[in-house]
Amino acid sequence: MNLILLGPPGAGKGTQASMLVQERDMIQLSTGDMLRAAKESGSEMGKIVADVMARGDLVTDEIVIGLIREKLEGDKKGGFIFDGFPRTLAQADALGALLAEKGETLDAVIELQVNDDVLVERILNRAKEAAAAGQPVRADDNEESLKIRLMEYYKKTSPLIGYYYAKGDLKSVDGLGEIDTVKADISAALDG
Ligand code: ADP
After folding, report:
1. How much distance in Å is there from the Cα of 59 to the middle of ligand 1?
2. Which of 8, 45, 125, 163 could form a disulfide with 153 if both were Cys (CB 3.0 to 4.6 A apart)?
């Protein structure tokens, strides 16, 4: 089974993806994690994306599609979870084409629904907690970048909700509950 987790920053995509990895032996493909790893490694691509990410803007479709293309060559185990990808209609089309090339299907798109006040609060709390614990704080977990990330989401990513609804792939889940409740709702949506 291959699935997309769709939702604004702070909706809990990463948290739920890691639980699906454990429970269903799936492979999490988080473009955000891949881009942060590129930045940490100091590669040329990492240098190109660092400022864009810190501002809260999207990196180019070309870069993220390239990252995903590479990962689709690897082991798929129980299937791929696309986390933070696709984020634009061009990325969604590219993903469809890449999966088709490999004879794979997209089995579900789970939309995690949350309200914006919760998002901002969650992300700023995450940054505060990390700072208090002496852990690194993401360069884009501040109010200014967060505003841009949310705006990018609404302008460029939220149209994917309609896109996948029209394709018949969309399942919407309330992302506001406890982690385990959301997890159960996702399972029900996938297996039901
Ligand atoms: P969040 O969902 O919390 O905003 P991510 O870790 O998914 O965070 O992404 C962090 C940043 O990485 C984004 O703000 C963007 O700059 C970049 N990024 C991640 N995935 C993509 C993508 N699919 N397309 C373009 N940029 C991306």
Report:
1. 8
2. 8
